């Protein structure tokens, strides 16, 4: 059974940085594109960054130049380095395959950007 466990969220001031981690159990990691998604209160869950099994990346316009996604296939872990954080980045962040599968959603990790 596949599990995705997100960690690394917290409270940070505007302009600050956080690094999120997502560890995957099971066999999905090495052959699938992985993504970080986020959901703010009252809004839909959106893809903000993706990385293929070969390491090609893509970003939503709202985070381009500030967020960096990476993966360590040996550790079955995908990361999201978030710099220059803004209050509008406040959300619960989730990882999943791309496109996402319903039964892979984990608990997510809360990121709050506030002074």
Average pLDDT works out at 94
How many beta-strand segments? 10
Percent range of helical residues: under 10%
Q: What is the N-to-C order of secondary-structure elements (H for helix, E for strand)?
A: EEEEEEEEEE
Q: What's the helix count?
A: 0
Percentage of residues in DSSP E strands: over 45%
Strand order of the largest sheet: 2-10-9-4-5-6
Uncertain stretches of 5 or more adjacent residues: none
The shape, in one word, is: globular
Please outline the major beta sheet: 6 strands, mixed
Account of the 3D structure:
- The protein has 115 residues and is an all-beta fold.
- The chain contains no helices and 10 strands.
- The chain has strands at 3-7, 10-12, 18-25, 34-39, 46-51, 57-59, 67-72, 77-82, 91-97, 109-113.
Primary descriptors:
four-stranded antiparallel β-sheet, globular, six-stranded mixed β-sheet, 115 residues, mainly beta
In short:
This protein has no helices and 10 strands.
Which SSEs are present, and which pair or pack?
Elements: E1 3-7, E2 10-12, E3 18-25, E4 34-39, E5 46-51, E6 57-59, E7 67-72, E8 77-82, E9 91-97, E10 109-113
Parallel strand pairs: 2-10
Antiparallel strand pairs: 1-3, 3-8, 4-5, 4-9, 5-6, 7-8, 9-10
